[in-house]
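Continued from yesterday's entry.
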Amino acid sequence: MSTEFPESPGFSSAQDFSGADEAMERAVGAIPLVDHHVHGALATDVSRRQFEELITESDRPVPAWMTQFDSQIGFAILRHCAPVLDLDPHADPETYLARRAELGTEEVNRRLLAASGIGHFLVETGYRGDEILDPAGMSAVTGRPADEIVRLEAVAERVVAEGTDAAGFAARFEAALWERSRTARGLKTIVAYRHGLDLDPRPPSPNEVTAAAGRWLRTAERTGTVRVDDPVLLRHLIWKGVDRGLPLQFHIGYGDPDVDLHRSDPLLLRGLIELAEPSGVSLLLLHCYPFHRNAGFLAQVYPNVYFDVGLGVNYTGARSVAVVAESLELAPFAKILFSSDAWGPAELHHLGALLWRRAMTRVLSGFVADGEWSRARAVRVATMIGAENARRVYGLGEGT
């Protein structure tokens, strides 16, 4: 069997992929990844303080006595992103940020997004969208397709902000969802943030929805804040999302302090998964760390469940190889996808791809070296997870 594979413009053989065979490195590097859950890159320049706040999931200010660069993701930026900006690997933070400012956000985005080798972006637009590039902006910078993932909660909050009464909320939301997702590739819910996954899995009745909408509207009028967190309404949004028929993403596990981590274990979704199974709608569990093994079990036993380890890969940095290896333990390989969940700094988009490629290369090379897998099968699995599974689930057609 030939071991000649094309080089990818976004994947340099000069990277440190020790422990991997060169043929595997070239093959994994050549995959035009489909990032099935990502957000836009920064649209404007940011200060050092702002940058450091964007490379952590904490929503608290960075204490004056420390820096977020002293972390796995900080070290990964200085190791792997610095060369893309014409710096030596392991540059110090001051040199790195000075070079970043010198180039400007537009050029930094262009370089790092190109270096990622991502061939298709599925961009979720429901969070602070005015600060980041929209799908069209991501496509313009990269020359690659970028489609939208619509956040259910954002649609509901827009309906309330534009004006509705309790009795009319359900119909207004359904109409808005269908219009808003007319060209979207999928939907997403952040129920893990707004309540937790330990909610009644059944669709609420129309009377329950109207009563809950009334409570929400009164709260919004009193506080001036439009935020949907009532479990009845969240269930309603999810089931209307299922009715819409598009792939439905769930944030799972690790995230900012708004998430109650022990209530974001995907095993809590088992009842909903089983009730949704007859619909045929694909349920995609995002990120999942530290519950990625639980997600792998669900993906194994339920045909409508898929998962990724996106966010966890970036934030575990040099340890991300272990996270990716663990994601391969239980689930059929047709049920695992790639994502970065990058939001803001293009460093996160680049690292999401690079660290995943490095991890897959090392793990699969080990399987081949041990005689457990053939190289051809290892390359096929990497291609499935990196691109083909997402193309099938979201109906993207053949890649380039």
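--- second protein ---
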Amino acid sequence: MKKIKWLIWVLVLVAAGVGIWYWKFREEKTTIVLNTEKPHYGTIANTVTATGTLQPVDTVAVGSQVSGTITKVLVDFNSTVKKGQLLAQLDKVLLQAQVDQINANLQQAKSNLVYQQSNYERQSNLYKVGAIAKAELETALYQYNAAKDNVNSVAAQLSSAKRNLSFTNIYSPIDGTVLSRNVSEGQTVASSFNTPTLFSIARDLTNMQVQASVDEADIGNVGKGQRVIFTVDAFPEDTFSGRVKEIRLQPSTSANVVSYTTLIDAPNSDKRLKPGMTASIFIYTKEVEHALLVSASAFNFEPDTVLRKIYKVERHSGSPPDRRDTTRHKRDTSVRTTGQPSYVWVKKDSALILHHVMTGMTNETQREILSGLSTEDEVVTGYETLKGKAKAKSTSPFMPQRPGGRGGGGGGSGGGTRPPR
């Protein structure tokens, strides 16, 4: 009986050991899952990012050419004005007094001219009959000519004084909107050394422009006429569009960073954009529409020993791409017309086949395929290993990867921020 009990305990311990080994130490079933995608048509673009400030296309600073005290201000901020409209008036008393004084001097000069003319004619008649010497006639002629010149001089002074008097009325030089008003009634304006700015008027707020600052590393790719989109903090959900209008050659340096001012047209028919708003800008330096695209991670994939045990690997399919092949889909003429040779792996049934391709543009997340693939191909971008319910990547996170090289296992997609469309 004791031997039977002992045998039973041995069997129980063996069964327990087998159970523990089965649940704790047995190898879990491993499943290899390929990550694939089919090439698709879309738009690919390279962009340059920048920040800028919105401003009116044409702004005029209205000032005063004479000094005086402001007696009337007839417009305010945001007022819509027409060309020739009266904006403000200065005190006219002193300037009007100058006009009156010079006018009186002119009348006196004219009276003197009449007298000197009469005296000259009388002396001329006396000289003809020999009653006076020639010297007296020449003296009368000199006084007569001096009187005429004096009339012309005083008349010029009167014209200048009247002109200065007219400057006491400040008129709008353009049709537009008053952006700023820098004076109030009773304020004294002094224009001795420089012309003070009384008003700032924007010509047309329905046609704005963005003054962007583009880094020297990016300015070489920016050109006139390129498409631009931008956002402003006031309307974070909306995207506004424009075109590069001008790249100014005068550089600016801040913290050892050289940048160039780039002007961008910004239509503003609804007047939502306001002067001074900060814009986040994307300049499309190169753009291709209806391009055949594949993820950039497909070009980093290379079958390793794990996949070679499962799939048949064929390293050659077709012939290497012809470097002279310039066939492209609908594309922008600013983009270069030659491609670069490369290759990707395509899954077909239980085989992985190497495909030679010609690539065009890349934006770090996708590449343009010029030839070598179709929308029916299954391009491998990487793989994953599944163990039971756990999911693990095939490559170690501590393994260094070469940028743009061919890593083993599953390559990840490239980074980069995609601008709003």
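The first strand starts at residue 30 and ends at 37. Helices lie at 2-25, 93-128, 134-166, 305-310. Will compare against the first tomorrow.
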